[in-house]
Amino acid sequence: MNLKQIPVQRYNPEMIAKPVGNYSHVTKIDRNAELYVFSGQIGIDQDNHIPADFNEQVTNTMNNIVAILSSQQLTPDHVIKINIWATEEIDWDHFYEKWNAVFGPTSPSMTVAYIQGLGLPELKIELDVWAAG
């Protein structure tokens, strides 16, 4: 597979507070990059099963993100922003274990929101992924 060049740079300016989580305050995209917007990725597995367990949904969601990026010859390094929508409290220890395994030490920009519901009643988390390649 031919991976696309990574036109993404991430920064945390020193004149503002450090991020309160594993994300970058600033993500810069090179001028000639293509923008990729993916539908929200959910915790469904390859057999179309949505587990009841929140952490299993997180694991499946991260796997789905890697797979959808790969389908476009992109890697997690191409991700510029992720919006996280959760219907219950996130287990940050588990979440960051999976997040760090995918994104490494320099994570994309992130927004987190707790909401009442998602598109299907059994969904507990959805990640909205933007990338550049």
UniProtKB/TrEMBL annotation:
Please list which residues make up the signal peptide.
none
Give the matching InterPro entries. RutC-like_sf (IPR035959), YjgF/YER057c/UK114 (IPR006175)
Q: Which SUPFAM superfamilies match?
A: YjgF-like
Superkingdom per UniProt:
Bacteria
Show the Gene3D superfamilies listed in the entry: RutC-like
Q: Which residues form a coiled coil?
A: none
Protein name (Swiss-Prot/TrEMBL): RidA family protein
Q: Which organism is it from?
A: Paenibacillus agri
